[in-house]
Amino acid sequence: MRKMTGIISFFRDGWGELKRVRWPNRKELLSYTTVVVVTCVILSVVIFLFDLGVSELLKLIGLGR
User: Fold this and answer.
1) Main-chain phi, psi angles of 61, to 5 degrees
2) Any idea where the domains of the chain sit in the sequence?
3) Please, what is the Cα angle at 29 between 23 and 31, to 5 degrees?
4) Contacting residues for 47 by C-beta, under 8 A, at least 6 apart
5) Is the overall model pTM greater than 0.90, yes or no?
6) φ, ψ for residue 64 (rounded to 5)?
7) What confidence score (pLDDT) does residue 56 get?
8) Euclidean distance between the first and final Cα of the chain, in Å?
9) Is the pLDDT of residue 26 over 90?
10) What is the largest CA-CA distance in the chain?
11) What's residue 62's pLDDT?
């Protein structure tokens, strides 16, 4: 029974924390999403270029396909 009250207390505390969260409005959410998507695209391009460069370098020294 003691275990059950611990579980109930855990969820009650979690619900209380969620009530104190300041949720973003629509404009902020769009702004944050844009930042994340742009960052992902930039990082993807950087990793692609790095991979391409290493691949070409390995071809030049004869270790690549």
Assistant:
1) -90, 5
2) 25-65
3) 140
4) none
5) no
6) -95, 180
7) 92
8) 65
9) yes
10) 70
11) 84
Per-residue pLDDT at 44 exceeds 90: yes
55 touches 64 (CB < 8 A): yes
**DSSP assignment of the chain:** -HHHHHHHHHHHHHHHHHHH-----HHHHHHHHHHHHHHHHHHHHHHHHHHHHHHHHHHHTT---
- pLDDT of res. 27: 97
On whether the CB atoms of residues 24 and 32 are closer than 8 A, the answer is: yes
Cα atoms found within 13 Å of the Cα of residue 26, Cβ hemisphere only: 0
The residue with tokens 């990793």 is 47
Q: Which residue's structure tokens are 């690549």?
A: 64
pLDDT greater than 80 at residue 65: no
